[in-house]
């Protein structure tokens, strides 16, 4: 079966979408960069956002480290290694490092774990040979039922090579193609899923539709500028969606502009971030 989280993560990692909505933390192991959850749609609504970059910079765990933790502690694809708790597994991952941890554990299996454990306990175990012998016997007993090296490879491959459609597949291309905006169908969908009135849908969604179109236009202009290509605005393959800038605004301390929209059904004006205009 194809993994829904894996497909979303692949699109996100290839910058084909801005983020993924998921309550499954495995989505980071599939390569997702931005994950949203706990969305509240009531007045003053909010959504919780997690960034893989924050996990790397603040916690020190990259994708390889997270996959290794899934191997040792358990996940949708394994029961984990018997006798390992979060503290021990995290220490081993940190000791080896994100750059090589997954490669090493795929090659060496639990031998890597034994070596890493041994280095951390060397002084204490050498000080008491009797305790050393008892400890090694306990390790042998605990490790009788753990995953073998080929199982480690199988679990890691489930995250590194999941069953999903490639970014250049026909299915992904069809999903990403820009269809004409149909306001009535959007309103029908929001009534069915959220119980929103058409007016509420227009208020909440239409400004974001406009901002999306403006962001697409802005990104294309930036890319052409980097490439040194000068294209007149009226010849851009993605048309400029705004007809005029009304005035500069401040929203919660951020620079913005109030703009008038061109040919966007139901939306005449709204406020957008200044960086999209500049």
TrEMBL record:
<dbReference type="Pfam" id="PF25386">
    <property type="entry name" value="Chromo_SEND1"/>
</dbReference>
<keyword id="KW-0234">DNA repair</keyword>
<dbReference type="InterPro" id="IPR006086">
    <property type="entry name" value="XPG-I_dom"/>
</dbReference>
<dbReference type="InterPro" id="IPR057340">
    <property type="entry name" value="Chromo_SEND1"/>
</dbReference>
<dbReference type="InterPro" id="IPR006084">
    <property type="entry name" value="XPG/Rad2"/>
</dbReference>
<dbReference type="InterPro" id="IPR029060">
    <property type="entry name" value="PIN-like_dom_sf"/>
</dbReference>
<keyword id="KW-0479">Metal-binding</keyword>
<comment type="similarity">
    <text>Belongs to the XPG/RAD2 endonuclease family. GEN subfamily.</text>
</comment>
<keyword id="KW-0378">Hydrolase</keyword>
<dbReference type="InterPro" id="IPR036279">
    <property type="entry name" value="5-3_exonuclease_C_sf"/>
</dbReference>
<dbReference type="GO" id="GO:0017108">
    <property type="term" value="F:5'-flap endonuclease activity"/>
</dbReference>
<keyword id="KW-0227">DNA damage</keyword>
<keyword id="KW-0460">Magnesium</keyword>
<dbReference type="GO" id="GO:0006281">
    <property type="term" value="P:DNA repair"/>
</dbReference>
<keyword id="KW-0540">Nuclease</keyword>
<dbReference type="GO" id="GO:0046872">
    <property type="term" value="F:metal ion binding"/>
</dbReference>
<dbReference type="GO" id="GO:0003677">
    <property type="term" value="F:DNA binding"/>
</dbReference>
<keyword id="KW-0255">Endonuclease</keyword>
<feature type="domain" description="XPG-I">
    <location>
        <begin position="3"/>
        <end position="61"/>
    </location>
</feature>
<dbReference type="Pfam" id="PF00867">
    <property type="entry name" value="XPG_I"/>
</dbReference>
<dbReference type="InterPro" id="IPR008918">
    <property type="entry name" value="HhH2"/>
</dbReference>
<protein>
    <recommendedName>
        <fullName>XPG-I domain-containing protein</fullName>
    </recommendedName>
</protein>
């Amino acid at each position: 079966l194809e993994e829904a989280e894996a497909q979303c993560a692949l699109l996100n990692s290839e910058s084909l979408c801005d983020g993924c909505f998921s309550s499954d933390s495995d989505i980071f192991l599939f390569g997702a960069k931005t994950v949203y959850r706990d969305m509240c749609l009531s007045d003053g609504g909010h959504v919780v956002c997690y960034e893989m970059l924050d996990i790397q910079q603040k916690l020190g765990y990259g994708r390889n480290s997270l996959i290794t933790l899934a191997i040792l502690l358990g996940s949708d694809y394994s029961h984990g290694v018997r006798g390992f708790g979060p503290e021990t597994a995290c220490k081993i991952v940190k000791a080896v490092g994100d750059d090589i941890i997954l490669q090493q554990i795929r090659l060496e299996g639990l031998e890597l774990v034994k070596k890493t454990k041994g280095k951390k306990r060397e002084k204490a175990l050498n000080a008491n040979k009797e305790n050393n012998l008892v400890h090694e016997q306990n390790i042998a007993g605990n490790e009788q039922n753990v995953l073998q090296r080929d199982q480690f490879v199988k679990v890691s491959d489930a995250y590194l090579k999941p069953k999903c459609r490639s970014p250049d597949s026909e299915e992904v291309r069809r999903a990403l193609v820009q269809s004409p905006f149909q306001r009535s169908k959007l309103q029908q969908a929001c009534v069915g899923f959220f119980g929103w009135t058409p007016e509420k849908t227009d208020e909440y969604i239409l400004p974001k539709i406009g901002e999306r179109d403006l962001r697409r236009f802005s990104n294309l202009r930036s890319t052409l500028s980097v490439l040194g290509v000068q294209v007149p605005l009226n010849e851009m393959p993605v048309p400029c969606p705004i007809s005029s800038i009304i005035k500069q605004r401040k929203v919660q301390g951020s620079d913005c502009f109030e703009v008038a929209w061109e040919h966007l059904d139901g939306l005449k004006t709204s406020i957008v971030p200044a960086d999209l205009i500049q």
